[in-house]
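Hi P.,

Sorry for the delay on this. The queue was packed all week, but I finally got your sequence through. Input first:
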Amino acid sequence: MTTRLFSSEQTVKLARFATAFASRFGSTLLSFAVLYVASRLLPTLEYGLYVFLFSVGSALGFIAVFGQQILIVKHYRRSQPGSNSGNRALVRVNLHWLLLGSCVLTCAALAVWFFGDHLVSPYNALPIAFLFAAIFALSEYLQNYFRIHNRIALSLLPREIVWRGASAVALLLVGYLNLPSSGVDAMLIITGLLATVTAYQAVSFAMAEGVSWISPTEKTSQPRFRKESLYFSANNVLNASTSYLETIVIGAALGLDNAAFYFVALRIAMLLTLPITAIDTVGIPMIANRFQAGDREGAQKLIGRLSCASFLFSLVGALAIAVVGQFVLGLFNKEFASHFIVLLILCGVSVSQAFFGPGSWLLMIGGGERYFLVARSAIFIVYLGLLYWLGSLFGLTGIAIASVLLSVSTNLAATFWVIDHWGIDNMATAFFRPLTTRIHNNLHLASRITSEPAE
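Then the structure:
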């Protein structure tokens, strides 16, 4: 008689995590493949233009989703049948907001295209960035829709693997055929491929949800959803600014060549967020289910494990980058290696994010979006001042230092709320607290036993 090492439920969870981790890891490698091929295909300034347009498009895409990717994670009920009217109402709200974002971006693209002759580079190329943003917003929503249904492969593989892999191959083909290319051409290629994989996800979404959500059949929580969407949208603006503002500012103020380096360095540092991203992909829906079931103790144990694992992976990765990072920068451009210190500072951003685990996600799905918006807005105002001051004094190094200060301050603000309102510690050190508490209790019990007089 043989015993099974894992139960069927544990096997399924391990398979989901393995798929998530493999997809995120593969996505990171393929992202670097795209960046590397583009750096070899394009002159430095055209490569900087490509990076600039990609950053603008990605930032606007995060904004144009209007927080619906968070709203659906928070309110969609997987435990109920797919025909549940509450879920249908939620999906209807989601798609109304996404349609609004697409319309705004389309109008902006037409306006810039019409007046393009009066604009200088890189601003006359913004229409393609707006088009990319509209597609990216839908892709971001669909990733989270399939994520809450535990369809991890459908959530991640189309954009993280297929799109990035196809983009690298397409750019390689352009270079092999010696076709004329520019930063705008590269953006057109990746935008068309993203539209293709997103259309595949959209078809799968339509097959899963049907069309019953189109006509309202009951009174919904429209005012509540609208209010939360506005808070989530404002927080998305801050998220997008945190991720892409520095590259955009560098491209506009310090030159597209510096923007090209900073974008590459930022992507290398973001390798260290791979563990937390993969863990969150599987872990956040599990955490949300525990809170919905009132299992706060179970949520605390799960969060402690996730945060500790992500921090340890990130820390080991940072040490590896300290050894090989300068060489990797030189692969993209020999001049990039001279800014190695900037890469090390940016690694501090990723390690700090991993230490605080899923704190910001816990806050957003727990009703703290208003607090987070106010706190982050205040922090962001200070950050803008630091960005200008430190950037003026130390250039790229100062901008990277400002990024570290922003990351730590924002995560601390989220942690304070989670501890205060949920009694949950989301930091990596939370994993060791049950162990230290148990050791302390055992030592206390042993001291009492030894101090009691024998009868």
